[in-house]
Write a structure and sequence with these properties.
The complex is a heterodimer. Chain A is built from six helices and no strands. Chain A is an all-alpha fold. Chain A has one domain. Chain B has a domain of 81 residues: Thrombin, subunit H, CATH 2.40.10.350. In chain B, a hairpin with an 8-residue loop joins strand 10 and strand 11. The chains are: A mainly alpha, B alpha+beta. The interface between A and B is large, with 44 and 48 residues.
Chain lengths: 165, 278
């Protein structure tokens, strides 16, 4: 049930991102809302079930996006594996840890996408715009990450409670 | 034999390497397995996008009506209600007029052109800021196929990337991966209109000696076998001719306003028209 709920919730997030958040003006681009979802699973949920959910959602994003095939799947998996054991090395309040990990995840995603663009076009002329987009996205992360964490924590706590009953 | 950590690291490395191989093999985009996977992904996600789109429109309408109703005063209730009703009606008429004008342009395009078109609505956009695609609410069940051109009365929008049963993904001409074989209408100078990062297009591979001026119209040449000849793309907004180099640096501003794109027309069976022209 948890697995199915995670998948469905992930698909709803994808729909929300493409149909609602995409309406924001280009000058204030929002970060990929699946990154905090991946970070949450990486930090606070079990490994094997979470990994398969992340891979499936990455696959779906690859199929509906114009990005090269496999880039979302690779990005989500990298972010997931990077933060999986981070709590063994860094001790901080959950919201702080979640916010920092989300910010790092957004930077990683931006680096991967921009590396691919540089690699495919062999040019750096969009470098300034990419940096500006990343800064705005990081501002959004620091403004919204703690709220997103509380939402996800409450949601999955409810699912766990239902499952125990 | 191997620890769990080693297995995980090895598995992750193999998966990332496989992804790297997939990046570089372009041919997989043309395989039927890839197309089937893309259709399946759109099949699951597009209904959710539809729901969000409808909800936004409903909330927008509700907010407009509530705003007008909240301002009704105590003494002039009846007159203010009448006034608000008239304002709402006027607003609805204006909205209908704007939608009517948009749809008339599409119909005029349809009537003036010998091609077969299918009208569709844009329901969602690309999830990342680095690429430019949209999802429309028509798919293969309506006759849409990959590589079908998509346009409005103002000009070319892009072409179909994937087509599921009821929805399709369209890559816009302002996407970095998009390329349209084009030419300048006035001087017939040839080039490739490629998407750029600022919401406009670059006109690449136009020789320095070719006559290109600001405000020249750029249209499709038909040589890429995707877009028929003569469809408008945009106008030249900047021309830079350096002293060295083979080509000019030309910027194109598309005629289509992609930020407010709501309805599009998909050109069905474009290859049939090419055969007919020949």
């Amino acid at each position: 049930m948890r697995y199915a709920f995670s998948l469905i919730f992930g698909i709803v997030l994808i729909g929300f991102q493409t149909a609602v958040l995409s309406k924001l003006p280009d000058i204030i681009p929002f970060y990929d809302i699946l990154i905090p979802f991946v970070v949450y699973f990486s930090l606070f949920r079990g490994f094997s079930a979470s990994l398969s959910v992340i891979l499936i959602l990455g696959f779906i994003m690859d199929m509906i996006s114009g990005a090269p095939n496999g880039v979302y799947m690779a990005t989500f998996m990298l972010v997931f594996l990077m933060f999986h054991n981070v709590t063994a090395y860094f001790h901080a309040k959950e919201t702080v840890l979640f916010t920092i990990c989300t910010a790092v995840g957004v930077v990683i995603e931006a680096l991967i996408f921009n590396f691919l663009l540089i690699f495919s076009e062999m040019t750096l002329h969009f470098y300034a715009k990419a940096f500006q987009t990343l800064i705005v996205q990081l501002i959004w992360v620091f403004l919204t990450a703690s709220t997103v964490y509380r939402l996800l924590a409450a949601l999955f706590a409810g699912v766990d409670h239902l499952r125990r009953q | 034999m191997f620890s769990k950590k080693t297995m995980i690291v090895a598995g992750a490395t193999i998966l990332i390497a496989l992804n790297g191989i997939v990046f570089s093999i372009d041919i997989i985009r043309k395989s039927s397995v890839y197309e089937a996977a893309a259709r399946a992904a759109i099949f699951f996600v597009a209904p959710v996008q539809d729901v969000f789109c409808t909800t936004i429109r409903f909330v927008d309408d509700l907010w407009e009506h509530y705003f007008f109703l909240v301002s009704v005063g105590y003494e002039n209730d009846r007159l203010k209600e009448k006034l608000e009703l008239a304002k709402r009606g006027n607003h609805q008429c204006r909205e209908l007029e704007i939608a009517n004008k948009r749809l008339r342009e599409l119909v005029r395009l349809k009537q003036q052109s010998p091609y077969e078109y299918l009208a569709a609505e844009v329901i969602a956009r690309e999830p990342s800021p680095w690429y430019r695609t949209v999802v429309i609410n028509k798919g293969s069940n309506d006759g849409i196929r990959p590589f079908d051109p998509v346009l409005t009365a103002k000009g070319i929008v892009g072409h179909v990337l994937h087509a599921a049963g009821e929805h399709a993904t369209v890559i816009l001409i302002i996407d970095r991966n998009s390329a349209v074989d084009a030419m300048i209408q006035r001087s017939r100078a040839r080039g490739i209109a490629k998407g750029s990062d600022n919401g406009k297009c670059r006109f690449d591979y136009t020789l320095r000696k070719k006559d290109v001026k600001v405000d020249d119209i750029v249209m499709s040449s038909g040589l890429d076998r995707i877009y028929p000849k003569g469809f408008r793309i945009g106008h030249v907004s900047k021309v830079i001719r350096r002293n060295s180099g083979l080509f000019q640096n030309i910027e194109i501003t598309p005629f289509v306003d992609f930020k407010t794109l709501e309805e599009v027309m998909v050109l069905l069976n474009p290859s049939d028209y090419e055969i007919a022209e020949k």
